[in-house]
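pinning this so it doesn't scroll away 📌
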Amino acid sequence: MPWLRAIKETARSGLTIERASLTPLIALRGAVGVAVVIGLALALGSAQLAVSSAFGAFASGVATFQRSWRPRPVLALAAAAGLAASTFLGYLLAPWPPAFVVLLAVWAFAAGMAWGVGPTSGVVAALTIAVMLVTVTLPTTVLGALAHAGLIAVGGVVQATLIVLFPVRPWGERRDTLADALAGVADYARRLRHDPMASFDPEPLMEARSAAAVTPRQARRRPRQLGGYRALAERFRPVLASLADPIVGGAQLVGPERDRVRALLGAAATVLDATARAIRRGERVRIPEEALEVLQVPETGPVLTGPARKAAMRLIALTDDAVDAAQEPVEITRSIPILPRATFHTVRKEVHGPPGWPGDVTDETPFQEAIEAAEAAEAAQEERTRRRVRRPRHLHRPTLAALVPVALRTFRREFRWSSPICRHALRLAVVTAAGYLLGQALPPEHGYWVALTAVMVLRPDFSRTYERGVARFAGTLVGVALAGAVMGLAHPGAYVSAALAVASIGAMYLLMGTGYAITSACTGAYVVFLLGIAGSLWSQTVLERIWLTAVGGLLAMLSYAVFPAWETPLLRDRLADWLDANGRYAIAVLDCFARPAERAPRQVREALLDARAARLEWEQTAARAGAEPVRHRGRLSRRSANDAQSALVTMGRVTMLLEPHLPERDAKPSEGAADYAAALGPAVTAAAEAVRENRAVDWAPVHEALSRWWARADEPPPVDLRTADLLTDALDDLADAVNPR
């Protein structure tokens, strides 16, 4: 899009105020941490010391509000350590301006590279630059520098201590994330009742997986409810989709079997919603009896057959597992245990068939033997469950110390000219040094605000940088105007100014999720009140803050325009990566039919995770590219990109429909599946390269393999053949979308 339109769209997005869940107790705790540090500094030291130390508690508190699954005390302590180190080094080199500028540039480059580890690391690293710019303007000796650095570190220690002493809903974010995943699957089940082709957003499941990774210490303390449901939510989705789909393996769109499918989907959604509610609140699961009645093999009425019956039986088993996985009391209105009753009807149908079926017999001996075998199997399963409880398995998250080698590998991987992270680091280093020199050349006392604003605005992509630039200026204008009016009318003293600063920072912590404009307004007011503690003239502070913030924001935005890292040229690469990942996922599933004795469910699972990660990369790149004022030769038009995305979503969905129908290890190998998978692999690899190079995609080998499979297939065609047919249609749609016209 044109530059003017791009700036207009990013400005509108930056000024948008979003609805967010407020956490007043957590915000109050963070504000108390800042108040404790300021109060101690005022009581035991000076106003200048209070101003300096407040930034440590403020920045450490900001670190604890970042989106991260690490313990909040660890984030506060890590931020405090980085703040203290940057402050001390800044004080050491402040008397020699050239050396200090070099330090700023090197530190800013390292902070920019920290984005390769993750957004939280990038934000916290940027805060260390900001504190270095602010605190070193206060004159001191080397011993004074040590004292300032130590006091800033104390701010982080205070925040960490308050988190430990006054925990607010421990494990709450992980509970919410897991509950959102279960609720998302429940909503999917309800939508499938009316739309068998309903779409599904896998992001909640991906967030739940990220939240499930814990350190060994966290694994010992994690509530039991958080240990078993995520995998069940993952297993529910393909079973629900397969049960609802009328083409691959589900019931027809009309008739009694479809009514039975709708009832099963609704009951499964009820169970999932009840489980999500229990996990979110940390209480026992309460499941309506009506839902449990539906989730049994019926003795009368419509009975599913074929692949739909297999999917229904798996859904019933998964529901039983979902109730048992919490290892907490399950409150229902019946006295008969869930699993034995389900087993009773299942075994009766397997041995005799439902009452009234042809072949129903009166001899109960085989039936009783089957029941005893099922009870023995159930007891063995319970014993295995108890062993898993004693020796829990979990996704591993490295500790901070173990993260250092990971960060170094990331640094080496991203240290190249074409890397967006490296370009961001170079941009940040140059802008920080240039902003500091510009601020020193300007007459205002607080010229460092130019570099500080540029550091806080710059991000690795165009849209966020320009959104934050506009939001920073607008929010600062409002915040300093309101704070200046209060200072001008009330003329508060040091302690009242400190209280107002704490109130401002508490409001920022509370409203941080609503948008960067509000965050900037609260931060602007905080700075005005904080400098009022040291006796700075409010009128001078307000005017300087406004126009220096504007200069810093413009410098950051101009730097991105001069030295960009556009996402638009990466669209074809991201699309090719997604196609390649989807192809490997499809081949992993088809291999289970081709070689059932060698089936590896873990291989299928890993391929699915890779496909989801590739889809997320594509969606993020496409969203950022849509806001960029740039054209690229060989680019995808918006319509082509949307059509290609739809085709790859269909490809992943069709493959997922086949998962509930994977054969047992003793099943007969499928020659057609083996032939089709052998043709699909090289074709996908060649197609991915063609997409990258803007050449035509050719699926002729895949069509030939599919034709051979249809020629040797029996009637009715097997479920894997019907899936391969739909998969080929999706590949053709992709070719229509990306082939040059």
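📌 and the second one:
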Amino acid sequence: MTNKKIPAEKRERAQELHEILQRANYQYYVLDNPELPDSEYDRRLRELQELEREYPELVTQDSPTQRVGAEPLSSFAEVRHEVPMLSLDNAFDDDELLEFDRRVRDRLNSKDPVEYACEPKLDGIAISLLYRDGMLERAATRGDGTTGEDITQNVRTIGSVPLRLLHNGVPKVLEVRGEIYMPKAGFAELNKKAAEAGEKTFVNPRNAAAGSLRQLDSRITAKRPLQLCAYGVGLVEGATLPDRHTEILKQLNRWGFRINSEMAEARDIQACIEYHKKLGEKREQLPYDIDGIVFKVNEIGLQRRLGFVARAPRWAMAYKFPAQEEMTELLDVEFQVGRTGAVTPVARLKPVFVGGVTVSNATLHNRDEIERLGVKIGDTVVIRRAGDVIPQVVSVVESKRPHNARTIEFPTHCPVCDSPVESTPGEAVARCSGGLICSAQRKQAIKHFASRKAMDIDGLGDKLVEQLVDEGLLHSVSGLYHLSLAELVELERMGQKSAQNLLDALEHSKDTTLPKFLYALGIREVGEATARNLARHYGELEPLMQADEESLQEVEDVGPVVAHFVAEFFQQSHAQEEIEALRQAGVHWAPEEQGGAEQPLSGQTWVLTGKLETLSRSEAKDYLQRLGAKVAGSVSANTGTVVAGPGAGSKLNKARELGISVMDEEELLAMLRERGFEI
């Protein structure tokens, strides 16, 4: 069969589409600044696919259509690295890092400070990408450092891996080293879909990335949210690269590679220690997992003089953070009851130091999670703790299971009030049916009602709530407003002054807003934003209480599930009675102005970063939301304004790169005062 002759205009159009789509990928994956809407990108890609279908000779290795994945492999071929991929030595405290710097300066016979490049150590899979004449020829895993596996077919599916390098001056042969990882958001979505499909979920983002890269069917890899971040080079032929590591990375970025926006230069080792401390503080806010910082002597000439020892370079050191995963023994399982009646299994553990603290309890989530893990009492389990996140059991070390391991029995009756535990079809959570009869639910409901984002009752802490319920002084949230001074002073550790302060705080809390009141009621799935949207839509409580599920779905961001919970809550007689009791006690609010579309900041996305000194972060967020703004946690091309306080880091840098409006706290306060807020 003879191929059709390709008209010149078709060939030119195919090349034009290549360039448009390649630039769109670079803007989206590398710069985080998409210029082309998804719908337009899809149209251009379909147009190119049609051209290539009609004229197969137009298909090239670097075509954007060739990322989708090919037929499955039977196995991975071995690859020998031209330049070994060495591992790094580790430091675990400041003294070890200072000792590394001393060795560097001793070997260089220098008393002057050494400049270092600082990069977050992504928790992913090390990869080697070989480009010849600017085209991706091969991708390989690190393996043992000398020999890895050829995973080119899988890596080609990753959008942030350039198939052809941008711009001129590309070396004839260029080997790029980088880390393939899975962002936290992508990992959460992947596990959510797996759980919904009844499939096994991944333990952590690193395991998910590794499993995705080692798929023999690259069409599976293509569906996984993987990213590449370049951190260095190996073999280079036919060009001279810059003489400093940070400049090499910036050059890689210009050629089409994503590099880490947290990369920095440190003038000396003390600056490295400060960098490690600062990044450690913001570690949990990063959109990806890191397990430490890599410090490299920045000057390439000094790197060459320092050389290597065994399997590691003398010029680099990984300063690790405390481990976020450890093994320990599951001693027992207890069941706790939450505000909405959810019965949650809690693992009682042999204490273990993980994530910087000693952990003795961890969540097991629900019955489905226990079955998925296959965990038993007596098992050795892997515990994960990330920052302030509740520690959780993520896997079982089955090889260490003792012969007397016991099956976990989920209760059929509430461990607090003995009411039946009920399960709703399609819902993983089992719930106590006792409602406010259950003292555990009553305690949690009152704690939520009094919390800062709800009625903000100062001085009513968790322990006092438990004491009031246990002493029989409090049977409902409305009962808070009927507490007497005489009752309170009789409580243990409650003096006359503390009791009066609490009564004053209760009186002060009666003057609230409708969004805060709705949030305080503790309706399932109604958080701050939903409560605010409901208040804006209905203006007052009465029409909201009478609304049916269909009309509730007309509210912004309210879907069928939330609408059902809201309608169901207001139809319950005890909820109606409690609301009336609260109003009779004097709880009141001003009507909300209906219709969020006319609010001054409607449709705008704001981001808060750094330390705010006059307002707390949550107060600033509340003010902005009351003006109609959406307050996001990360900066993107859709962000309208960034409010930056002292200590603002990568979000501020990204805002400047994208040309986004930036204001400080004083400017924010001035704007809020202009809008009528008394601050």
